[in-house]
Amino acid sequence: MNIVTERPLARLLDPRGGLDSLVRLLVSEGHRVLGPVVREGGIDYAEVSCGDDLPTGLTVEQGPGRWRQHTSNEGSRFGWTPGAASWKQHVFPPVQEVLRVRRTDGSFAVTDPPAQSRPLALIAARDCELRALGILDRVFADATHPDPRYTARREGTFVVAVTCGVPSATCWCTSMGGSP
Description:
Elements: H1 9-12, H2 18-28, E1 32-39, E2 42-47, E3 58-63, E4 66-71, H3 88-91, E5 100-104, E6 107-111, E7 120-125, H4 127-140, H5 148-155, E8 158-161
């Protein structure tokens, strides 16, 4: 099952507004837009509402057992490599309501929880992270026994991928058949 769907960006994005226009448009279309944010000395993936919420001038120093961020005055948006954060927590949350059971008059009433109301938009996913999402898709969206909550979340997901300009010595994308 290939969950990736392509939407022509020409109709979505005014090139003069760039990333900010895209993020604002996705928010206005009802997406829950997630992107990299600086939090407690690292990069995390959290909800963003405009392009300015994304880090600018951020680079990282990464090696075995070491990850340090640095800021500069240059205007680059994606000069960092991924750290410990993962998109998995958003496409397959660690805590989910699976069903509701209510006991009434000696019997049980079982209902499904409400479906997720807003599709996800992931901004600045890297090649290694796309490959990791592909593995999750194979496991949780398998045609034989798909997880309905996972597939519903992924079918509506819009992903903007970026390439690592300076891969780290600890990057693993090539071991997964990808490249920086």
